[in-house]
Design brief:
Blueprint lengths: L2 E6 L4 H14 L4 H9 L1 E6 L10 E8 L2 E5 L12 E2 L17 H4 L12 E25 L2 E24 L8 E2 L8 E3 L7 E3 L1
Parallel strand pairs: 1-3
Antiparallel strand pairs: 1-2, 3-4, 5-8, 6-7, 9-10
């Protein structure tokens, strides 16, 4: 899904320092300069996911004391018919050697192995052994103030191994997107605290 982001940014620090200097000298803030410093914004279009994912989503956001607050959402992310499964970004470079994930197979010029990684699982198999033997004996003697002797020996053997297995995940819908399976749908999550509204879960 392509995302177009609009956010407020600040002017360079030198201009803000100049505004503060003028305020200190005259007692009046240069309104135009401060207003421009605080209100200027920029837009950037960022491509993500597969080219089958529809039009851009426009999102505005601002920094607040509690973090980012999003607004101006143009997509209903609570709609399972709109939110679909697909690779979020081009991070599948490790899949380049796999013939079945090449651009020539996808028949889409912009989709190849880099867009084929939809996830990754890392499974570690641990094997640990701890063997311990302890022998202890007590002897009674009569050596003046020494009446008893305790003696013993202990042996411990500790071995631990890890067999790490990592696997790349590619959705069976590649090179296209696909619907979220009905059995995996958990309703919606409330992200209104961040201005995102309801989002499929």
């Amino acid at each position: 899904m392509d995302t177009q982001i609009t956010r407020p940014i600040h002017r360079p620090a030198a201009q803000l320092r100049e505004a503060r200097r003028q305020l200190d000298d005259s007692g009046q803030a240069p309104v135009a300069l401060l207003g421009e410093a605080l209100a200027r914004s920029w837009q950037r279009s960022h491509g993500a996911g597969l080219p089958t994912q529809g039009a851009n989503t426009t999102r505005s956001w601002a920094t607040t004391p509690n973090g980012l607050m999003f607004s101006n959402n143009t997509t209903n992310f609570a709609d399972y018919s709109l939110v679909r499964l697909a690779g979020p970004q081009s991070w599948g470079g490790s899949l380049a050697p796999i013939p079945g994930l090449q651009t020539s197979v996808s028949n889409i010029p912009t989709v190849g192995p880099a867009q084929a990684q939809d996830g990754f699982v890392n499974t570690g198999v641990f094997d640990e052994h701890l063997n311990s033997v302890r022998l202890e004996g007590v002897g009674t003697v009569d050596y003046g103030w020494v009446k008893k002797i305790n003696f013993g020996v202990a042996y411990t053997d500790h071995a631990k191994s890890k067999n790490n297995h990592g696997a790349f995940l590619t959705a069976n819908t590649w090179p296209l997107d696909g619907p979220i399976p009905a059995g995996s749908r958990k309703g919606v999550a409330d992200l209104a605290w961040a201005g995102l509204g309801q989002v499929v879960a």
